[in-house]
Amino acid sequence: MSLAGPPSESASGSLWAWLGAAGGMAPSSSPPSEPGATTLRREDPVTMAAIRPTAIGIPGYSETLRCEPESVGRARRLVGTALGAWGLHELADQATLVTSELVTNALEHSKRRYMRLRVSRLAPDRVVVCVTDRSLAPPILRAPNEQDMNGRGLLLVDALSDSWGANRRPFGKSVWAELIAKAPS
């Protein structure tokens, strides 16, 4: 694991800026009438905005998710759809499992209402999945014993990704995993 950040930068700017630009915590301002958009409930502090996947330019997609169990499936679908659009079907199983673990960690440990998921294609064969939450506690790679019911998520992330790490933010942290498609043999 690295706490320094992903190993490279994109041509369009610093990857550091991509991972942390204002935390990406603001929801989309798209009208709720668009297909697939989900409107926030009136009691939420965010004013009736729509939350839906948003292109972020690298190419990539980003979505603000509620910290609730249903968000794990939504995050998996977003990452799977992005990989399909990019023709990276061979990364789908790994990337969706890594996404599940990162989102579940944010859900269980941040104790906040929202998190931000980003998936970006840094190169034709390279994808980064990043989850940003408002918890300042760093992720901890554990070595659970057979009786432990939890603590295996980051072991899976470590095993399935080519690299992963966490970047501290003034408001929380971003935990990312990089996956590289293997050249056909």
Q: Identify the CATH class.
A: Alpha Beta
What do we call the CATH topology?
Heat Shock Protein 90
- The coarse silhouette is globular
Structural class: alpha+beta
The residue fraction in helices comes out at: 25-40%
Low-pLDDT stretches: 1-51
Strand neighbour order, sheet with most strands: 3-4-5-6-8-7
Q: Provide the β-strand percentage band.
A: 25-35%
Question: How would you sum up this structure, described in words?
Answer:
It is a single chain. With 185 residues, the chain is an alpha+beta fold. The chain has one domain (48-180): Heat Shock Protein 90, CATH 3.30.565.10. It is built from four helices and eight strands, in the order αββββααββαββ. The strands form two sheets. It has a six-stranded antiparallel sheet with strand order 3-4-5-6-8-7, covered by helices on one side. A hairpin with a 2-residue loop joins β5 and β6 (126-133). The longest helix has 19 residues, at 92-110. The radius of gyration is 16 Å and the shape is globular. The chain starts with 14 loop residues before the first helix and ends in a 5-residue tail after the last strand. Mean pLDDT is 74; it is low at 1-51.
